[in-house]
Each structure stands twice: as structure tokens, then as C-alpha cells.
């Protein structure tokens, strides 16, 4: 769905921090440190991201041989050709470039927040509605989100990458956002007590510090840094213009004198002395 190493790892690490922060609300979030960082981040998520990205590279570089099915000599080749019939015709490589401008940065942050909220809804819905993890609705919801979310993510990427041809956000993206918000409202309605359990003081301090750091970096990267670079460029241009004016001397026409320029001698200079 996301097709990006950086965003996938950010979501993976951020969700582990959310588990640390919300283990006082959901008991199944209480895990050992090695379960958080070794089993979840490195083994399950890390290996899954690696295999997924390699699969995307294979899909984007795959070639097609448009020969008839019955012209393929081997039975294995026929089966492979039939399987490839259901693979994508083309594949777009996503390059989110979150730090390129403020609009993309805010959009990427919004995508990460909605994605994390959708993952949290999985656990809160199971807890609130008393569904065991092996219930068929849990798996059905995840399969539904993979299919619908893939289309929504492509609409968001097209809207961000080329707003001239995609002036409005696609309806599938709005639908996924509405579903995620509706799931959160269900949790709030049926178990407000769980969600209103206050965060421990040190957890709230950590999230406040993280939010301040992100906000500070945003202001510096997209406001202060641009003002500083613009001031340096104006100052450099002024220095170059002053240097050009200082070199322009001599003829009064604004051109500087060089060794190849001939200066006319006054009359009588260098000639024979008069009798």
C-alpha cells in the first residue's frame, strides 16, 4: 500500500511506542522488550517490509511476452503464463519525498496518523466488542482494508504528486478516512471508560516533547531555513554587484581596463624635439 521503506519503518516503530503508551488501557499491549523490538520491529515487520519491497521491485521490472498460450511448449510455461495474466499491467513506484515542501510534509504526517489510528482500531474493536483474535470478522476487516486502502493510497499519491491533473482527493481515500473515523466513534460509544483512562505522567511528557520537536523541525525546515537561504542569496548577489562596480573604472563607459587596452598618447609625446 505505501511502497516506501522510510514510511513503513516509521509506522512500525511508532506503533511500538503506542503500545508502550497505551498498555494501561489494553492489557495485550504489555509485552517484553524483545517482543516489541526484536520480534515485532526486526523479525515480523522488518522481514515483511523487505519481502514486500523486493516483490514491488520485481513487479515494476517484470517483462511480458505476449505470445499465445498454446504456443508455449511446456506445461510449466503455460501455468506461469496463466498466473501472470492476473498480475498488474504496470506498477508505479511511490516517491513520497516528505521534506520537499510543506504540503507534502503535512500530507505524509496525516497519512501516518490515519494509518496508526486504523491499526489501533483493530485492537480496540476486539477489546470493546469481545471478539477473540481468531474471529473471522477480524481477518475479514484486514483483508478489506488491504484492498480498499491500496486504491486509496494510490489516489492520495496522485493527488500529491501531480495536483494539476488530480485537483481533488479521490472518493476511495475519503471512504477509508470515514471508515477509520467511524470505527473510532464505535469504540468511544461502547467503551468510553477505557479511552478516558489518563496517560501516565512520564508518557504524556514524552509525547509532548516529541510533538514539540516535530513542530520545531517543521518551522525550521519550511520557514526559518528558507528565510535564511533567501537572505544569504540576496547578500551574495549584492556583494557580486558591488564587486562588479568596483572593477568598472577607466573609460567612463562602465568597462574595465585590461592589459590589452591601448591608451592614446598625448600629442607630441615621443616625437623629435623641436629646433
UniProtKB/TrEMBL annotation:
Transmembrane segments: 105-124, 136-153, 173-190, 202-224
GO function terms (MF aspect): L-serine-phosphatidylethanolamine phosphatidyltransferase activity
Pathway the protein takes part in: Lipid metabolism; Phospholipid metabolism; phosphatidylserine biosynthesis
Main location: endoplasmic reticulum
Membrane topology: Multi-pass membrane protein
Basic and acidic residues bias spans: 237-247
Superkingdom field: Eukaryota
Function of the molecule: Catalyzes a base-exchange reaction in which the polar head group of phosphatidylethanolamine (PE) is replaced by L-serine.
Protein name in the entry: Phosphatidylserine synthase
The gene coding this protein: PTDSS2
Amino acid at each position: 500500500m505505501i511502497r516506501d521503506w522510510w514510511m513503513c519503518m516509521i509506522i512500525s516503530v511508532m506503533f511500538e511506542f503506542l503500545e508502550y503508551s497505551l498498555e494501561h488501557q489494553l492489557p495485550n499491549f504489555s509485552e517484553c522488550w524483545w517482543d516489541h523490538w526484536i520480534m515485532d520491529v526486526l523479525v515480523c515487520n522488518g522481514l515483511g517490509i523487505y519481502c514486500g519491497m523486493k516483490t514491488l521491485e520485481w513487479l515494476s521490472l517484470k517483462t511480458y511476452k505476449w505470445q499465445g498460450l498454446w504456443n508455449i511448449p511446456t506445461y510449466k510455461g503455460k501455468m506461469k503464463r496463466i498466473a501472470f495474466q492476473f498480475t498488474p499491467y504496470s506498477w508505479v513506484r511511490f516517491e513520497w519525498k516528505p521534506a520537499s515542501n510543506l504540503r507534502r510534509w503535512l500530507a505524509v504526517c496525516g497519512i501516518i496518523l490515519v494509518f496508526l489510528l486504523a491499526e489501533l482500531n483493530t485492537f480496540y474493536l476486539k477489546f470493546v466488542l469481545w471478539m477473540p483474535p481468531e474471529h473471522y470478522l477480524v481477518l475479514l476487516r484486514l483483508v478489506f482494508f488491504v484492498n480498499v486502502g491500496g486504491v486509496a493510497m494510490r489516489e492520495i499519491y496522485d493527488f500529491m504528486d501531480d495536483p494539476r491533473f488530480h485537483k481533488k482527493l479521490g472518493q476511495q481515500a475519503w471512504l477509508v478516512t470515514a471508515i477509520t473515523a467511524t470505527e473510532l466513534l464505535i469504540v468511544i460509544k461502547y467503551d468510553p471508560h477505557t479511552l478516558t483512562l489518563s496517560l501516565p505522567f512520564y508518557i504524556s511528557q514524552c509525547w509532548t516533547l516529541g510533538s514539540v520537536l516535530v513542530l520545531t523541525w517543521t518551522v525550521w525546515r519550511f520557514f526559518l531555513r528558507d528565510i535564511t537561504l533567501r537572505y544569504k542569496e540576496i547578500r551574495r548577489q549584492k556583494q557580486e554587484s558591488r564587486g562588479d562596480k568596483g572593477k568598472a573604472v577607466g573609460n567612463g563607459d562602465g568597462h574595465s581596463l585590461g592589459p590589452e587596452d591601448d591608451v592614446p598618447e598625448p600629442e607630441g609625446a615621443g616625437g623629435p624635439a623641436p629646433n
